[in-house]
C-alpha cells in the first residue's frame, strides 16, 4: 500500500511516521507513506498556497493550483483508489471505513488548513471527504495521521499478532471486553476467575457478555445501528 499525504506542514509527520507500527510497516515494505509539501507545487515565486476568500469572509483559503498540480503529478505515476480530504464536515471515520481503506493499493490524503480549501478542490479533485469527529482542528494533519495509523495497522504483517487487530473495539460493532495481565492479584484487585479457568468456551462467552455490557453502557448508539 502507498499513502501520499499532501500538506503545508510536512514537519508534523516526521516523528509519528518514524516510530512504532507505522515505522515497522514501512521498514517491512508493507506500506509506503510519502509526505508532499504543497509549497513545492505552487506557481507563485513566494510559494504561496493560500489567498483571501471572495465575499469578504475572515480567514485564508487554500488555493486550487498547488493542490491540483500535486495530485496530477501523482496520478501520472500511478492510479489511486481514493483522493481523501480531511474535513470536519466529512463522513465520520470509523473501523468499518478503516477496514475498507486498508484493502486499497494507493491513497491520497489532502490535509486542509487555514479557513479551508477552495471548494472547487472538493468538487473536482476529491473523491472522499472524511472527518474524525464533530470538532474543528487547526489543520488536517492530525486527522491524516489518525487515519493512516488506523489503516496501516490492519495490513497483514504490520502487527506481530494479527489476531490482536481482529479483537479490537468496533470490529464487530461492539466495544472490546476488559483485558488483564499478571499478577492475578494486585493489592486485592483481582482478575475475574473465569479468565484463569482455562475453559476457552466459557471465556469466549464471558468476553462477549462483557462486550455487550460495555457497549450498552458506554456506546448504546452502536447497538441502535
Automatic annotation (TrEMBL):
Enzyme Commission (EC) number: 2.1.1.228
Protein origin, superkingdom: Bacteria
Keyword annotations: Methyltransferase, Transferase
Keyword check for Transferase: yes
Keyword Methyltransferase: yes
Protein name, as recorded: tRNA (Guanosine(37)-N1)-methyltransferase TrmD
Gene this chain is encoded by: trmD
